[in-house]
Amino acid sequence: MQLFKPIYWVLILIFLSFCSKDNLEKNIIKENSLELQVLEAYEEGIKSLNEGDALFAAKKFNEAETLFPQSEWAPKSALMAAYSYYAQDYYLDSIAELERFKRVYPFYKNMDYVYYLLGLNWYEQIIDEKKDLETIINAKENFVFLIINYPNTDYALDAEFKVALIDDVLASKEMYIGRYYLQKKKWIPAINRFRNVIDEYDTTTYTEEALYRLVETYYKIGLIDEAKKYANLLGYNYLSSKWYEKSYILFNENFENKLIDTIKKDKKNKKSFLKKFKSLFD
Q1: How far is CA 236 from CA 111, 229, 240, 244, in A?
Q2: CA distances from residue 228 to 120, 181, 194 in whole angstroms, order as listed
Q3: Residue 135: left if φ>0, alpha if ψ -120 to 50, beta else—which one?
Q4: What is the mean pLDDT of each run of 10 residues along the chain (282 residues)?
Q5: In whole angstroms, what is the distance from residue 161 CA to residue 153 CA?
Q6: Do the beta carbons of residue 19 and residue 12 sit within 8 Å?
Q7: Which residue, 89, 184, 60, 179, is CA-closest to 130?
């Protein structure tokens, strides 16, 4: 009986080896089958996207991701679903897909594209400077993150261009509010808005006007030295601009008005003097 024990254990080991090989083969077959299903769903998504049915394409890409989450096709499918929604202007759905992507695939090799597409989704919802700022701020945040963290990419180059346009929109909003306060003679809030343009958006097309509005506002409230300071700054940087001309006219009009007032007063004094002089001969 002792003689058969070693043979018994050898047989068990052989049996277990066959079982493990069989399981491995089954797993490989299963994975290959899943891979094929993923590819089929992915290709269907591409076909639908090319045909203009972006919603069905997004559905197929989501299906491809769900079928085999461990596959290399899963993150590609998730990104394509987000792009499909974006292509059809379903911006909020695309944003939701991309935010989920950031959580599920934080180390994906093409994260620069994720932030670029996020920025585009917010950017294309911008209407004008008088509307809700959420879209403008979120677009800028994603583009700036892209520029800082992925500087040597084509997406970063385009993001820089779009950030410049966004800053123009933000500066425009500051100017719009500042002009309103100026019209209502709310001097301090107006000054704060115009200063924001100079401090935060000094490379935009609104810098010249903001400097002039500061000249105008300080001049109106009698702070002539402050007005002159900004007029000099305007002249130094934008000597040939219409806004510098306006500030120049503003100061010269004041001089002419003062001169006219002096002449009028002098005329009154002259009349008074003549009256007194005539009285000497009465």
Answers
A1: 44, 11, 10, 9
A2: 43, 21, 16
A3: alpha
A4: 50 50 44 71 86 88 83 88 93 96 93 95 82 85 96 92 91 93 94 94 91 92 89 82 79 50 47 46 44
A5: 13
A6: no
A7: 179
Please give the structure tokens belonging to residue 267. Answer: 């005329």
Neighbours of 195 (CB within 10 A): 16
In three-state form (DSSP H/G/I as H, E/B as E, the rest C), the secondary structure along the chain is CHHHHHHHHHHHHHHHHHHHHHHHHHHHHHHHHHHHHHHHHHHHHHHHHHCCCHHHHHHHHHHHHHHCCCCCHHHHHHHHHHHHHHHCCCHHHHHHHHHHHHHHCCCCCCHHHHHHHHHHHHHCCCCCCCCCCHHHHHHHHHHHHHHHHCCCCHHHHHHHHHHHHHHHHHHHHHHHHHHHHHHCCCHHHHHHHHHHHHHHCCCCCCHHHHHHHHHHHHHHCCCHHHHHHHHHHHHHHCCCCHHHHHHHHHHHHHHHHHHHHHHHHHHHHHHHHHHHHHHCCC
Q: What angle do CA 204, 207, 209 make, to 5 degrees?
A: 130
CB 67, CB 37: distance < 8 Å: yes
Residues in Cβ contact with 97 at an 8 Å cutoff, skipping those fewer than 6 apart: 58, 78, 81, 82, 85
On whether the CB atoms of residues 123 and 139 are closer than 8 A, the answer is yes
pTM of this structure: 0.71
In angstroms, the CA 48 to CA 60 distance is 9
